[in-house]
Amino acid sequence: QIVLVSGHLDSWDVGQGAMDDGGGAFISWEALSLIKDLGLRPKRTLRLVLWTAEEQGGTGAEQYYQLHKENISNFDIVMESDAGTFKPSGLGFTGSAKARDIVKEIMALLQPINVTDVYDDADGTDINYWMRDGVPGASLRDDLSKYFWFHHSQGDTMTVQDPNQMNLCAAVWTVVSYVIADMEEMLPR
Description:
CATH architecture: 3-Layer(aba) Sandwich
Radius of gyration: 15 Å
Shape: globular
Keywords: Carboxypeptidase, Endoplasmic reticulum, Glycoprotein, Golgi apparatus, Hydrolase, Lysosome, Metal-binding, Metalloprotease, Protease, Secreted, Signal, Zinc, Zymogen
Organism: Brachypteracias leptosomus (short-legged ground-roller)
Oligomer: single chain
CATH superfamily: Zn peptidases
Structural class: alpha/beta
Mean pLDDT: 93
Number of helices: 6
Strand content: 15-25%
Number of strands: 6
GO biological process, one term: thyroid hormone generation
């Protein structure tokens, strides 16, 4: 059984793609790194996917889906961060009402950093195939007030990234992915 965390690597002709979506790829990598560094071993496999070709029609995600869809019942949740890594506020979630209630309980664990909201509907080009077929999905929600200052521009460089805000995003990704991967049962469909 698999809990998938992800971001994508794709830079436009301008900028470096640091915020869109290097930050999402980084916090996904960091989540698994933190779990390993803490010596935690969840019941399910945590899988990192760094998607390619999202801006070229999502062909990387489609290829992955085609290769793994026969095991769709083993995918517990698919998570994608593709809206920058500014100050997080919670998760967008797509799934059953029972699964949503569980995710709300998990997000309550993040009260100390004030990131507890669960919004309607996860979004992410790279996880849409899975959600369409009933796999629960989550996307990081954060402060988008500056996102389009840098999106697909020459300004999308590493200097946009705030290490403290990225650490908060990584904390959200780490807690959510680990807790879901370590629950007794998979999220209800």
